[in-house]
Predict the 3D structure of the following.
Amino acid sequence: MNIAILTNEYPPHVYGGAGVHVEYLTRELAGLDGGRHTVQVLCFGEQREDRGNLHVRGVVPAVQLPAQDPRHAKLFATLLQDLEMAGMLAGIDIVHCHTWYTHLGGCLTKLLQSVPLVLTTHSLEPHRPWKVEQLGTAYDVSSWVERVAYQSADGVIAVSESMSHDVHDADLSQVSPIFSGMVGGKSRRLMTVSAHTTHTAANGSCAANPSPKAGAKRTFVSRLS
């Protein structure tokens, strides 16, 4: 299986929990089934790494677009990076995105390559209203991109039970929760089950719910403590 991970943060550019999550998740995915699967990581930055079946490529904006409001410059750069990510991927079986920054790239990849899209929800834009001051109306765009991604996703991985309830615009009658158990050491609990969830989502089945309702989205819920 060829697994694509799209993320803003990846070492050495890690400034929050999402970056730590992705670092451990990619490690678990690369070791899944004895390392039989290829893991491609596309991230924001200039990273370049090849370690066995784990391949990391950083992406930077190819150009700087004009912005009438300086607060919009980051948004345009993000959308350019997403477009490039979608253009770089080929022959993948599943795409897995983290935070709104890569959601456009994930949605484009899902449609262009007809593959499942999995999202891990670390936080939601509507719950971060202070970003309006930082981004101006670009905040409306980031919220829209995130909303469309959740509506398009084939699977959603929530990092806590409360986060699963916060996923906006979800038809809860069409969401099948997958609760994690104790899978090992603290740093591996979320990552091991999350890796298997990503793996099985590509086949449209999950061990915790082998016969979900037709059209059901799969939500994995876990916590680190």
Observations:
- Residues 172-193, 205-216, 219-225 have pLDDT under 50 and may be disordered.
- Residues 2-221 form a domain with the Rossmann fold fold (CATH 3.40.50.2000).
- The chain has one domain: 2-221.
